[in-house]
What does this fold into?
Amino acid sequence: MNCTVMLAMELSEVEIDADQLSTNFVTSESRLEGNVILRHQGMVLRCGLAEIFPKSETNNSPRYELSKQLALVQETTEYSLSAQAGQAIYLPTQDQLTLIEKVYFQYNQATDGFLIEAENLQIILKEGTVSQLISSGAPSRFSQTVSDKTVVIEAKGIKWDTDTLIATLEEASLDDGATTFSASMIEYNTATGAISAQGRGDDRPKYRFNSATEKQEDDDNDT
It folds into this structure.
């Protein structure tokens, strides 16, 4: 058995289908289970459970709570993305999708892409496409390969903007194999690989160049 729910929204429609559906015709709250698929604005979310809470006196906007092996994909003319997480909260009329618990988010464009691993990741949409990414919770991890060099950044928080292609990283440390770098605030351009940092006092940017000689000495000492 397969059930489909179509809910009219302010700008478009959210479509969900699942193996099982239960609903309350008084409150319009619904619960879908088993191979749940949500489609909206080019996004496809798959999970095992979805609960729908319509707009009401106590709920400012329609809310979709999804869980159980959550997976997300979206392909546009500009990018493709895929993600896994433990849970998600989708507010379609506010253009917000929040991924929660062990988030693994991969974003790819024609010539580059990056990976974000975080406890929570908020996706801000604009006309159906990603506008901003904001991580929070446990320390986040950002990684990208540029010109055959892998850059790994660990930070307290990450904010990436599609207009500037700049990731702003709070209390961050960067390692690209040849250098290590840390600062209270780092700005990293995901298109060019350019880095800028700022801080004061003990939080001033700290930089170290790891030469091939130093690396070889470390390897010799390990043997």
Q: What stands out?
A: Residues 6-11, 213-217 have pLDDT under 50 and may be disordered. The helical segments are 212-222. The first strand starts at residue 3 and ends at 8.
